[in-house]
Structure formats: structure tokens, C-alpha cells
Amino acid sequence: MTDPLPVDDRPADSTAPPVALAESTRYRKLNGLWSLWLGIAASLTVFVSAYVIFGWGNVWGTFVPLETEYFYFVLALLLPLAFIIYPLRKAQVKQVPWYDALLALITFLITGYFALKGNEILEIGWEYDAPVHARYLAFILWALVLEACRRAGGNAIFVICMITSIYPIFGAYAPGFLEGEGISAQVTAGFHMFGTESMLGIPLTAFANLVLGFLVFGVALQHTGGGAFFLNLAFSLLGRRRGGPAKVAIFASGLMGSMSGSVITNVLTTGVMTIPAMKKVGFRPTYAAGVEACASTGGVLMPPVMGATAFVMATFLEIPYATIVIAAAFPSFLYYLGLFLQIDAYAAREGLKGLPAAELPHIGQVLREGWYFVFVFALLIVMLLYMQRESQAPYYATVLLLAINQFSKKHRWNLEKLIGFIKGVGILFAELAALLAGVGLIIGALTLTGKVGTLTYELVRLAGDSVIALLVMGAITSFILGIGMTVTAAYLFLAVTLAPALVQGGLDPLAVHLFMMYWGMISFITPPVAIGAFAAASVAKSSPIKTGFEAMRLGSIIYFVPFFFVLNPALIGRGPLPEVLLVLSTTIVGIVLISGGLQGYLYGIGSIRNSVIGLAGRTLLVVGGIVLAMPGNSEVVGYSHLQINTTAAIIVLLGFAVSWLGRRTGNN
User: Which of 45, 54, 109, 47 is nearest to 74 (CA)?
Assistant: First the structure.
């Protein structure tokens, strides 16, 4: 049986990179020499990364680079691409002007020179005693990094990186607790460009040692038809169920979002199929768009890949990536459970059916055509969690995927598809390299001035030693930063400034860092910004603001869960097994109640009418669910499990009674 669904197979059959689907006007349409430069830079980066990660220098008896030499070489290949790919003005998307070509060349020459001098930079200590010509080059590269960061990430992140990076120079004039000893511009530039705690620090370390391989795997998955496979698999498994297309969106968008790491790209690739299908079976356009926005946002928070932020987190915390994957699996499951239950409740209340079986692909054919995607995924997870070879796993998975793909008649690559894959990889590489090099300057400036400890002290003092107040401050700050910065950039800024204060307050470090990552994502579904919801609204042809509020309600669990797991890390699997099971079970029951209350349908009661009594019952169910989902922690929360669960039981029982009365009143 041929798949009757008009699946968007564009990532597998087009030379356009997946990210270009979201914001094509951001990127120049490169051809000729510029396209060749992009392809060579991307290919060399992959080769050099594999050369270092697999230790081929030792195996072959050839050159073994120092870590700083490797980082400079990666920057030499990728940083110039920011000036070639991203135009200064939107009107320049069709050609590369001479000044951008010059900036790219200068960037390549400076970073390439530093790569050649990497050993000397360490031995002589150019960080504080560089030759005169190197000092001038450091200032030039500093400016180039900031401009590359601006083009890749926008003006908001540029302003933050620029002001913070020059802060050491003007620290003596800063107000209040930010005042410090002024550090010369020469020392500041040397620390930024030659030290291992600024441009070459944690962000770039994570990128070069971990992220590169997963970016390659994610693009390979999309260019070999992985998006079509997971979408068809979801339709074949869930399409006929109650509210089936919405449940398909959860499954497909969750998987693809984890690979791509981009909410907008995810919305515009899977959403073009799931949103029309949802509307077809009776979902309101705003509701359909809200479901897709929430599903795509959650994908970036879902293991095993989780975009780039999780890899940076592993490097920052100096823990195995597998530890983060296991911890993140718990809140990710709870988020998608809440979304699934709300969709099911809404579909039950509105009487929405699934799609006819004749319009759906057959599970057998889907698996026959794409079984190797499941196999490759299994290999990746085994290597990540069991073998704990985080840096090598994506390369093995990619090679296996591409090898098997060439036996597929439908998705076999020709030269054109190979070139499209390389271009897609190059654009992702360039964007993240520019962003992370710029964000590294923030960490470098705070490290150089020693203000991290001061900020921690002031935040604790401002919160009055209240952990809850610190968490609320952190949530608000993460949300605001998430509006104007990438999730990775916002996370890194808070990991340096706010995380130490929360950890000092007695909270689990991993839970704290996951908390900031989650709240950095919330802006994608929260008005007035809600760019994930707005992108979905453009597909659904619905009101962007109404879609944003719908997404906010559907994704409501994401606002609560981070507070719950940071207050009791048993909710991310960190603690004794009985404690983990107790907290997880009460949270699941709480989410069932919250979902039912929000959507007006509860299992065992049925539809709850919108009468005054019905709304009162729904409110009690939501409040009781939140209390029940809140983990007990006598030291931090101030209440034990028994106290919290007893209180929740009273509220929930009252909510059941009022809701039942509301249902019966509505039926009469």
C-alpha cells in the first residue's frame, strides 16, 4: 500500500537545509565559489572533529593537536561563514558584497594564524603577555566575534555579549556591587581571545567535543527521510484514535524536535501535515496550532539529543551526558503526558474522532520502508546510555544511517542530495559556532573580574535567603532572556550568574540547570512573544495571540514541573527508589487532574459543563492536582509528603463532588 498522506518529504528530497524552512530570508542563497567554501568548511570541520574525537592522530602516528589548536581551527573554518551566510541587510540575500567577503577572509586568517601558533600561545602565555602584533589581532578578532554573533543570533544577544565583554575595562565606573577594579583593554582582549575561559571556554568546548556530531546526525536524519518516517509511524499508530492527528503531532514533533533542536523548524516541517489533519477531524485552528507549538517546544527538551544546550550543560557540570539524558527523561515524560491527556480530554468532550483507516499508512509498510531509523536510534541510545561514548555515538549512528540509506530506493542520495546535506550541516555549524563564541565572552568577562561570587552573594541577599524567591527570580530572568536569546545562550548566562546562588541554597546542581533550561524555552509558547505558537498559527491560519494563549494552556505543565523537580530532585530520578516512585506516581495523578480540570473532562465523570458549579469544580481539580503534584520536602518546601498529599486529597475530593454536581446540573 502506498502512503496516501501527502507527507512533507522536503528534507529528504531538497538541497535546502532544514533550518532554511523556518527563516529563509535570514540566509543568503549561496552559489558558485561561496557555496564551495561552505561545503569545504563543513566537510573539513566534520573530518577534523572525527580526527580529534577518535584519536586518529595517535592511531595513524600523525599530528595530535592541542585542544586550543583544535578550537582555533574549528573557528577558522566556521566563524567566517557567518559573514557569508548572514547578510548585513535582508536586501543582500542574493549576493555576497565585497566587505562581507573581506570580513570573512580576515576572520579566517586571524583564527588560522592563532591555530598555527596554538602551542606558542600556551607556552609563552599570550593570555597576559602576547606579542605586539598579536594584541592588535586579538582586538580585531574580538570585534569580529561580536559581529558574527550579532548576525547569527540577533541584536539582543549582541548587546548583552558586547556590554558584558567590555565590562572588565569599565568595571571601576560600574554602579553598586558591580563596581570593581578596572582591567586594561590589552589584558581583557588577551584573556578573551587567548585564554581557555572565554571565547575558547565551556560553550566552544561543548560545541567542538560533543555538539558537532549530533548536529551532523540530526541533519542526516532529516535528509534521509527520517521526518517522513516518524510522521508516518505516528499516523499509523495513533491516527485512528480519538483526536488522533493531535496525538500524532505529539509523537512526531517530539522525536524530530529532539533531533533538530529548533522549535520553529519543527513546527514548519511536521506542522504542515499535523495541523491540517487536526483541523480535518474537527479541532479548532487555534487549538491545532497550539498543540503543534507545544509538541515542537517539548521536543527540544526531550532526550536523547535535546538540542545543543544539554551538551553544554554536561560540559559545564562535568558530568556524563547520559546522566543528563536520564534526568531529563522524567520531566519530559510528564510534560508530554500532560499534553496527551489534555488532547484526549478535549477530543472526548467535543466528540472528535480519528482519521479513517483508508487515509492512513499501514504500520507494516511504514516499518518495512523505515526500519533502519529505529535501528539507528537504538544504536545511538545504547552508545549514549550503556557504553557512555557520547562524543563518538553520533558519528557511528550517522555512518550507519547513511550506509543503509543508500539501499533505500526512495531516499537513496545522488550528488545533489549529498551537496544539500553538506550545506545544511554547514549552516547549522556556522550559526552555533558564532553564537557560542560570543556567549563565551560573557563567561570570560565575569571570570576575569571575579564577579561570579559577588553576583551569587547579592542574589542571595536580595532574595533574603529564600530559595523560593530565588527560583521565581530565576524563572522570570530565564523567561526574559529566552525572548531575546537562544536557549543555549540564555542558559549559559544564568548558569554562571544565578545557578551558584541556587546551589548554595541547598538545591541539586543538575536540577537547577535543568530548571533554567526549561524556563528558557517557555517564551516559545507564552504571549506576547510565543514565536513557536505564532509560527504554528501561520500554518493553521489562526489568530497568533489566541493561538499563543491556547498553547500556554495546553503546555501549562511546563510552568509547574521545573519548580517541582528542583524542589525535590527525586522527580528527575535522583534519590532513593521508593522516594522516586512515590513522587513520580503522585505527580502523574496530579497531572491527570490538572489536565481534566483545564479541559473540562475527567475520566469517571465525563464532560464538566461550563456552569458556575462546573467551573468551580474544575478549579478545585486543577488546584488539587497542583498540590498533589508538588513533591514534599521538609527542608526546602517546609511540608512532608503526608501533609501535602492529605491536603491535596481533601481539595480533590471536594473538586470531584462539585464537578459531579456540575455535570448533573448541566444535564438537567
Answer: 45
Question: Alpha-carbon distance 203 to 191, whole Å?
Answer: 16
Could you write out the three-class secondary structure of 444-473? HHHHHHCHHHHHHHHHHHHCCCCHHHHHHH
Q: For 9-47, b where at least 16 C-beta lie within 10 A, e where not — what string?
A: bbbbbbbbbbbbbbeeebbbebeeebbebbbebbebbbe
Query: Peptide bond before 578: cis, by omega within 30 degrees of 0?
Result: no
**Burial status of residue 386 (CB atoms within 10 A of its CB: 0-12, 13-18, 19 or more):** exposed
> Helices in 261-308 by DSSP H: which ranges?
263-280, 285-299
CB 209 within 8 A of CB 222: no
- Report CA torsion sign: 576, 577, 579, 583: positive
Where do runs of H (alpha helix) occur along 351-450? 363-381, 393-405, 415-449
Amino acid identity, residue 207?
F
Question: How far apart, in whole angstroms, are the C-alpha atoms of residue 15 and residue 86?
Answer: 18
CA distance 298 to 366: 25
Q: Which residue has the cell 461550563?
A: 610
Instruction: Spell out the alpha helix ranges (H) of 568-668.
Output: 577-599, 612-629, 641-667
Sign, CA torsion 234/238/239/242? negative
What pLDDT digit, counting tens, does each position of 223-275 carry?
888 878 888 888 888 888 888 888 888 888 777 766 666 777 778 777 888 88
Query: How many CB atoms sit inside 10 A of residue 664's CB?
Result: 12
Q: Under the phi-then-psi rule, with left for phi > 0, alpha for psi from -120 to 50, and beta for the rest, what region is 527?
A: beta
Question: Phi, psi (5° rounding) for residue 117?
Answer: -95, 15
Give me the mean pLDDT over the 133-153 stretch.
94
0.85 surpassed by pTM: no
Q: Read off the DSSP letter of residue 575.
A: S
CA terminus-to-terminus distance, the chain: 49
Q: Where are the domains of the chain?
A: 15-54+66-204, 585-668
pLDDT of residue 4: 37
Report the alpha-carbon distance of residue 255 to residue 525 in Å, rounded.
Answer: 18
Give per-residue pLDDT as tens, 406-453.
Answer: 887 778 898 888 998 999 899 989 988 998 899 899 889 988 888 766
pLDDT at 634: 65
**Are residues 325 and 303 in contact, defined by beta-carbon separation less than 8 angstroms?**
yes
Q: How far is CA 634 from the centre of its chain?
A: 33
The whole-number pLDDT of residue 20 equals 36
Query: Cβ–Cβ contacts within 10 Å for residue 414, how many?
Result: 7
pLDDT above 90 for 105:
yes
Closest CA to 87 of 70, 106, 101, 72: 101
- Cβ(112)–Cβ(76) under 8 Å? yes
- The rounded distance, in Å, linking the Cα atoms of 224 and 425 is 13
What is the mean pLDDT of the segment spanning 149-162? 87
Residues 234 and 5: beta-carbon distance below 8 Å: no
